[in-house]
Structures are given as C-alpha cells and as structure tokens.
Amino acid sequence: MRKATTDRAGNLAGIGMILALAGCGDSGGGPVASVSAPTTNSSLAKLVASQSFANNAASESATIAASANVTAAASTSQPLTFSYDLASNSYTVSTQGRNQTFAPANQSSAANGIAVYAITNGATTDRLTLESASVTGYGAGYPQYSGLGYWQRTATGSGSSAVTLDFFIYGLDTAASAIPRTGSAAYATSVYGLVTPIGSEARFFQGTGRMDVDFVDGLLTTSATAYETGIVSQTNYGSGVTIAGSGTLSSSANAFSGAITYTGLNSKSTGTLSGQFYGPTAQELGASFATSGADGSSTSGVIWGNKNASLTPANLSMANIVSDESFAAQGAQMTIPQGGGSANASLATGTVDVTAAGSTTVTPAGLPAATLTSSDKTTSSNANFTAYSQAYGSGTITANLYKAGSTNTELALTYMTFGSWQGPTSTAANSGTGTSWFVYGLGTDPSVIQARTGSASYTGVAYGTAYNSATNATAGVNGTASFAINFDMGGYSGSFGLKNATTNYGTFNVSGTIASGVAAVGGVTGVTAGSGSFAPAFYGPTGQEFGGPFQISIPTANTTIVGAAAGKSG
User: Fold this and answer.
1) Are residues 405 and 263 in the same domain?
2) How far apart are CA 214 and CA 218, in angstroms?
3) 167 DSSP β-pair partners
4) By C-alpha distance, which of 323, 547, 360, 519 is closest to 439?
5) Which domain holds residue 492?
6) Cβ atoms 399, 393 nearer than 8 A
7) Residue 441: left (phi > 0), alpha (psi -120 to 50), or beta?
8) Is residue 232 part of a domain?
9) Which residues make Cβ contacts (< 8 Å) with residue 214, sequence separation at least 6?
10) Quick one: 96 and 153 in the same domain?
11) Which of 276, 289, 279, 23 is nearest to 130 (CA)?
12) What is the DSSP letter of 176?
C-alpha cells in the first residue's frame, strides 16, 4: 500500500529512558501555513485549514519492569481527538484525560518523511509519530485522505515504567450518503500495533493483508500476516503472526464493526474491531482493534487500507457470489443397485464450483458431475430450494440447492448452504441410482475457533432422503435441528428430527469433539432406533454457522437415510 514498509519498533533502554517507536517511509515535508488558504481540506496531501479529524483509535497501557518484561497490561478502544491548527502548524491529541500539543519546535525527526515529535517534562516523555500524505509526499497511488499516527507517553519511575500507546488512523471521512450500497471492493492493508504478553517483552507488530467488503450484504472480512519485534531488545521474533476478523457495515452511517483475533508467536487474544471509510468515494479505510486473551496478553492496533483494483474480490456471502470459487463439499452418499436391494451409504467429499455468472457444477465423490445453469431450472416443490433437472445418458440428474440469504423464508444462511444430487451412477444400461446430500460454503479458519471461549448455540434445519430396501422406495424427510458448542471443553452436541407425511423417524442425537479448531466426525444415535455418523464444520469468519452431512442406518426398519443439517447462531 505504501512505498516502504519498514520496522517501526523502537527500544526501551532501561529505567530513566523512554519507550521509543520510530518509523520510516517516503521523503516529504510538512504542511505550510497560509493566511489566504481555503477553509477546508480536500486531502491530506496539503493541509490548508485547521481541522479536527475523524479517526479510529485503540490504546495499549502497560507496566514494564527494569527487566523489560511486561508486568501488567490492558487494551481498550476509546474515543480520541486529533486536530490540526493551521496558524501554529501544530497537532493536538487527547484521550482518556490525557492531552498534548506538538508544534514544529518539538519535531525531533523527519527521516524518510515520517514526522516524529517529542516533548519531555520531568520523568514523562510524549512522542507523536505521523505518517500521511501531508508529511510523506505520497503519489496519487497512495493514501491521500487518511494517515497513520501513534502517540506514546512514557512515565519512568523507580524500578518500572508506565507506558501508554495510542494507535489511530485519521483523516477525511466519507459522507454516509457516499458509502456504496452495491458491488464489492478489496483493499490492500497494513497493520500496526503493540502486543503485551505478561512476563515477556512487549512487542511491536506490523504486516500486510487485505480487507474485503461486500457492500450489497453489508459484510466484511480482514486478514493479515505480521511479524513481532521486541521494543527493548529489537529482536525480530519472526513472522507467522496472523490477524483475522470480520464485521458488518452500518446500513445508514459510515461505520463498520466486528470481531478480530490476534494469534501471536506465543500469545492469542480476541476482541473488537471498529472502523470507517475515508475519501469522497470510500477509496480508503481505517480501523482500530483491541484484544485480550486468557493467557493475559493484550493487543491494540490499527488497520490502514487503500482500495486496490488488482485484487480479486473475495466471496463473503453465499448469496452474493462475486468471484468464481471451488468449494470442498462434505457429502453423505447412498447408492442403490439396479432393481433395488441393500443400499450402500458413506460420508465422502466432493466439490461444488460456483461462478459469478450464476452456474453451479456439482461433483459428488464417485458420481457424475452436473453443471447447472438457468436453462436447467425446474419448478421446486419447496420454495426455499432451487430445483434443476438435466438429462444424463438414458436417465436424468435432479438437483436441489438450498437458497442462501434473505430470500429463504425458513433459514437465512449467509456463509454456508447445502443441496442434493440424485441420478444414475453411470451411463451403463445396468447403472444403479445414486443420492448425495452435500454441504459447502465459506469455512472458518481453525485458528479462530481455537481462540473462541465459552459456548454457542445454533438452530436450523435438517433435510434428507430415506430409502427402504424392503419396498425399494425413496422419500424425502426433513425437520428442525439444534446444536450446542462448548469451545472450552472442545465438543459439540445436538439433535435433529426427520419425518415426512407418512413416516416419523423420530429424533437423532449427535455428538463429537473439536480439536485444533476442527470439528471431528461424530456419532448419530436415534432416540428410538438407528445409528450413523455426522461430519460437521464451522462456516463464516467467526463460526457463525455450523452443520454438515449425515448418514444413518435403521436395520429394524430396513431404512438408510442420507442428508444434511445446518444451523446459525444468535
């Protein structure tokens, strides 16, 4: 996003010294005051008027011992005021009862175009670092409407130092009426912040990533990889840090919010994300985040983004596919020999390829693929499914895809969906019949599930196909489903009912374990009869949806059932 991304970590040399964050970037100069200047700023490239800037900020406070180890720390997202005064060419920052004004006389460095200001008053030192077009001379391809800042206050004492660091993105925010409500966009991002693991050295982190925004459904996701640098030792602890979050856009204001997870090299924490867009047409964005972990660690940081047309937009909702994508489809399949007889059922993984143009190719494991287009649509007996029919050899493949999004009046899934495929197993004259129920969608990163604590409940539906080998008859079944997740204990449980107009198969209970953020295949037990297996997964940026395929055998009823169950939380 910028011409240079370099280490901004400074050092705490010991008691009586200050914690210093330094940076580097492009060369450039500061703003010049003019008594005849216009009264408003049109960009940060040249400030021509006094202004209090819109911003997103997060604060990290820590107590650092003489050993350089963190003994106490906390993070928070708090309102911050950041303003520029044209007459004095100075900046004032204030938050949580602290304030400081930085004038040209306080500027200690302008190396590589990043303005660094320092003020010392007794045992307290304030430092302000600014990186924006007003001090770097960025070209047109770089942020023009937003900038990065961090204000550090260090109070040295006997045996320890109290440090606060406020990270913020500031600038000229987009009018609410100018926020797009159609289409999607991808932003190249940079992340900066401080992580404070208790009993270890505080570390500055920085990295790059992306934020994807679906303006139609008001959804966003963000991800970045970063590395950590010790603020005292300047040790590069290495890369491998991941930052992942998701959120929703306000439907009426220039604002977005959500959840975020920081997975450090020896820390893990979760928290909240808040931000907004900058520039006349939302060309840029800024967000702040604050997290805390069960291990005592915490982070505060910011995300700074610039719209990048070279990035392929990501799919954020199964109801709004903006880019072609191939999904692994967990399935439950059943094959029946020609003329009937015992069915063979198993769990298997196929694929579902979806295009932005609207076609869907379903490829169950070991069964023929079917590319479904608008010309294959037929009338569905259930308005919440889209039905397709396609000739295959001397037979017919039929498929039913559960509608995602608000058009579904039963269960409005956002991140996952499911469907069924039924048809001949091959073009051979003696081909049997195959049935597959499959679940697919935008899976959750296992590291996010690993970081979750507490519990969550999901409610939804179950659909399937039941086959009776004694009568050689198949019939659809369905019912409601519910699941409970215990993230602390690493397990899931739940139940779903299956019936149709003529037969009630009762309730089936499911249970299984969750390890390393992945739900394992669990068992299915019928309340009255039957047993089988269930292969669930989490979907959505933070696991908002949960479900999977199942296969059940009921020997006493000569019945085999394959199907899919899905639920959403909250």
Assistant:
1) no
2) 6
3) 58, 150
4) 547
5) 325-569
6) no
7) left
8) yes
9) 184, 220, 316, 317, 320, 322
10) yes
11) 23
12) G
Give the integer Cα–Cα distance in Å for 48 and 36: 9
CA geometry: angle at 457 spanning 453 and 463, to 5°?
135
pLDDT of residue 266: 86
Place of tokens 């058009």: 407
377 and 460 share one domain: yes
Query: Does residue 436 lie within any of the structural domains?
Result: yes
pLDDT tens digits, residue range 307-366? 999 999 899 999 999 999 999 999 999 999 988 899 999 999 999 999 999 999 999 999
Distances (CA, A) of 387 to 157, 175, 383, 394, 480: 72, 43, 9, 20, 21
167 neighbors 188 (Cβ within 8 angstroms) = no
Identify whether residues 278 and 338 lie together within a single domain.
no
Asked if residues 180 and 296 have their Cβ atoms less than 8 Å apart, the reply is no
CATH number at residue 216: 2.40.160.90
pLDDT digits (tens, 9 = 90+) for 383-428: 999 999 999 988 999 999 999 999 999 999 999 999 999 999 998 8
CA atoms of 184 and 547, how far apart (whole Å): 27
Number of domains composing the chain = 2
Nearest to 507 by CA among 529, 486, 487, 485: 529
